[in-house]
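Continuing from the previous page...

OK, I double-checked the sequence for Class I SAM-dependent methyltransferase against my notes and this is the correct one:
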Amino acid sequence: MIATLSITQDLFLGGKIQVLQPVQGYRAAIDPVLLAAATCFKGKGHVLDVGAGVGVASLCLVSRKTECLVCGIELQQDLVRLAEKNITINGYEGRVNIISGDLLDPPSALKDKQFDAVMTNPPYYEADKTRASPDVQKAMAHVESVDLKKWLAFCIQSLKPKGILTLIHRAERMDEILSYLYPKMGDLSVFPLWPSAGKSARRIIIRGRKGVKSGLTFCQGLILHDAQGQFTPEAQDILRSGRPLVY
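Thanks. Re-ran it with the corrected sequence; updated C-alpha cells here:
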C-alpha cells in the first residue's frame, strides 16, 4: 500500500511535471525523460509505455505531444497507484492511463491491441549476471524478471504495422537487442548517450519501425555532460525545456 511507502515529490522538465516516487527502490532520473524525448510518431498517436513505473516517461511525452494518448503497463501495483496520483497531479486524466499487469499475461485491455508507437525502458541487468538489490522494488526495476527477448517481443506485437518502437538500454547489450528486433523491425537507428566528450557510451537509444526492411543507422548521439560535469546546453534543452531528441 502507498501508506507504507516514504514518498518524495520531484520535478521534471524544469518543474513542468511533478512526480511522486518512493524514497527507497527505483527512482526515475534522466532515462525516462530521454526516452520520451526520443519517442516519435505521426499524427495524434496512441502510445504504449511498457514498464511505465510511476509514469515519468508517459507524462513527459504528453506534455510535449499535446494530442497523443498514452497507455502504460506496470507490474508493481504500488508504482501504478503512484502513477495514478501523478496523472491527477499533472492534470492528464483522460490522456494517460497506467494499468497494472504482467506483459507475459497482458490484461484484457491490452490483449490484441496495437499502438502507433511503443516506448520502453526495460530492466538493464540479466538475473544470472548481477547481484540484485535487497530492495525488492529496486531489484525489479534493474534486474530482469522477464527475459529481454520476451519483453521486446511483447513490444513488437503491440505495434501497428510501420509503428515505431523506441527503447533505452545499456550500450553493451546493443548486439543482443538488435538480434531480437531483426527481422520484424527495420529502419533501425542507434543513438549513443555519451557521458561526456571522449568517454564511451554507457546507454543507447534504439528506434525502429515494424515491418520495414531498410537497414541500420548509427547516429552521432548526444553528449550529456561538459568538462565541469554539468549538463551540456543540448542536454539541458531536452531535460529541462522538453525539446524532442531529434535524429
